[in-house]
Q: What sequence folds into this?
């Protein structure tokens, strides 16, 4: 594991309407750690190579709070060794941002759906996207939260270069069936609740790295 990286996951997309085929996810303990990692020679070399051999690359950054729950993630057992991750980015109208009631309603709906299908979800009100040419498409301040599952890949991907995404959700699922059920039964409900267009959606299958193992309780 690279210095500053708390955990990482990677895998192939299940399907991609935009042709995206793979995804890599890194989690950092601070913005400074993330910035240092991205400034490293190893990352710059990998990113440069990816831009040369790939038809399309997207680098997405957002900030989320996990607090004392972080260690629990690594003690939950083998269900965290593999699975599926879904990232969704959406635009929000100004009326939504100015309405605490709508925000509370959205968070309640998200919590209910996460409790039913997901192991974990991290939400944020902003993020940044950098495309293959290196253009920074959106950077805004962040206010995020961590939502664990109380009890207990990519389908499509699309990016609008002129869009300013203001809400992002990163979800982890244990089984492929859970991901599909969430997409069929919950994604539309969340979008209707938010009343905003989807900017990006990408789900991918996660496989454990060699010589790594999740600690059990």
A:
């Amino acid at each position: 594991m690279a210095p500053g990286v708390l955990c990482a996951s990677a895998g192939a997309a299940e399907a991609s309407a935009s042709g995206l085929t793979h995804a890599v996810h890194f989690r950092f303990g601070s913005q400074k750690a993330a910035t240092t990692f991205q400034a490293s020679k190893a990352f710059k070399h990998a990113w440069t190579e990816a831009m040369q051999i790939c038809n399309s690359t997207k680098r997405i950054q957002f900030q989320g709070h996990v607090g004392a729950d972080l260690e629990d993630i690594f003690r939950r057992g083998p269900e965290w060794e593999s699975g599926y991750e879904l990232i969704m980015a959406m635009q929000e109208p100004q009326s939504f941002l100015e309405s605490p009631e709508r925000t509370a309603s959205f968070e309640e709906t998200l919590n209910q759906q996460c409790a039913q299908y997901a192991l974990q979800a991290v939400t944020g009100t902003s993020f940044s996207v950098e495309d293959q040419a290196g253009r920074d498409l959106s950077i805004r301040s962040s206010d995020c939260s961590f939502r664990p599952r109380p009890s207990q890949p990519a389908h499509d991907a699309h990016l609008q270069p002129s869009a300013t995404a203001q809400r992002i959700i990163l979800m982890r699922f244990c089984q492929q069936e859970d991901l599909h059920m969430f997409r069929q039964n919950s994604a539309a409900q969340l979008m209707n609740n938010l009343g905003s267009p989807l900017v990006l959606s990408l789900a991918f299958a996660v496989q454990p790295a060699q010589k790594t193992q999740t600690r059990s309780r």
Summary: Residues 133-165, 210-217 have pLDDT under 50 and may be disordered. The chain has one domain: 5-206. Residues 5-206 form one domain. Strands lie at 5-12, 22-28, 59-61, 83-90, 120-124, 128-130, 145-148, 167-173, 198-206.
